[in-house]
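Open question from group meeting: does this chain pack into something compact, or does most of it stay loose? Before anyone orders reagents, we agreed to write out a predicted structure and look at it together. Recording both the input and the output here so the notebook holds the full record.
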Amino acid sequence: MNNRLLLTALSLSLSTSVWADFTATPEEARGIAKEAYLYGYPVVEMYKTLYTQAVDKKSPNFKAPFNQIGNTAKAFTAKDTAFVTPNADTPYSFVWLDLRAEPVVLTLPPIDEHRYYSVQLIDAYTQNFAYLGTRSTGNNGGHFMIAGPNWQGQQPIEIDRLLRSETNIAYALYRTQLFDEKDLGKVKEIQKGYKVEPLSRYIKQKAPPAAPAIDWPKPTPTMSDTPEMFRYLNFMLSFAPAQDAEKDLLARFAKIGIEAGKPFKPNELPASQRKALEDGIADAKAEFAQFKKDKVDTHQVSSGDLFGTRDHLNGNYLYRYAGANMGIFGNSAEEANYIGYFVDKDGQPVDASKHDYTLHFDKGALPPADAFWSLTMYDGKNKLLVANPLNRYLINSRMLPDLKLDADGGLTLYVQRKAPAKDLQSNWLPAPNGPFYGVLRLYLPKPEVTSGEWKMPLLTPVTSQKP
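Structure tokens returned:
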């Protein structure tokens, strides 16, 4: 065999070995890619946050290494970019959990009964598998053990509760209510009381052998929008043992090379196969866009439908995708209710370069929440908080004494780019010069929210802006 033939044969052999598992026809691959994109997008978006907060120590968003806590003793601002649609009411604390070697114990201090706080426990699929805090465990503190799917030990008697993650990588996202700027010192003291330690250290026993070191792939700018996403999905699936209910689905994914721990190199695919994957991703995005327009923007589907446990989501990967796309790490319905303002009362997309808006609450009809409520502004282009001269990113129930009520006792908020009249500026929520969206959050919502008895007000356009 001459050198040219040898090189050709070697090239074909390598190509075949890399993509031996790509058995789908282009038409079939397109459909599988659509399913896999909806399924895997939340996992990959979670990885982006994991990498910037726990792996890349040079990142401005780095918080702490795995199994250590990072506290942010301030509310989020427009400079915070680690994840989209953050809240600015509750300073965050962050713990990325590596549960491969042993469980991790989270210790919570006693907290003033009038202050809301929570620890949201999230698996690698972005599913909320459990909660600690005001609603779920109270404000008296305690010791809580988080175990991975393979741990077989006994719960120590001094542990108040054992909680299991179905994935070996998980996230503990703490929210501690901040009353006002003067309250920041108290929040810092509370955060100092949040402790994290491996089980062996907590019970003062010898640590088990360390889990193997992980070679974390560096994120790329297009990783969530192209077939490149499946490379990161394969990586993350290696920390997520297959669930019985998903084995058939994962077998379908394997037909296009999606399999836990396997390499995925889309640039080495034949053009027809790569196009099939790209078309499938485009199909998934189109389905979401239509779903958002028809169901989310019209409030037929609520945030409570999009976030929760695996059982709650019940295999609805479009819902899980929508939650990750619009506001990753959103709370489950019983913890918080989110109302998104993407359109006005006429069903038109909101844009502060074209209109000013008002949001009016009748007397006695403020959002019913046992903890607190807030309306937060986001830029429609980057999904982040909006920089403004007042450094005001939200209006919440703690601000009510400083807000101006209407003559009849109602409350009108002014949502617009430019400041309203001076006597109305206390009620002004600054908007960007372009598309935006608002999120009304109700922490510990009252029953009349889920029952539909309380009716949310709609954004009303007021004036056309002149160029």
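Observations to bring back to the group:
The longest strand covers residues 369-379.
The chain is about 25% helix and 20% strand.
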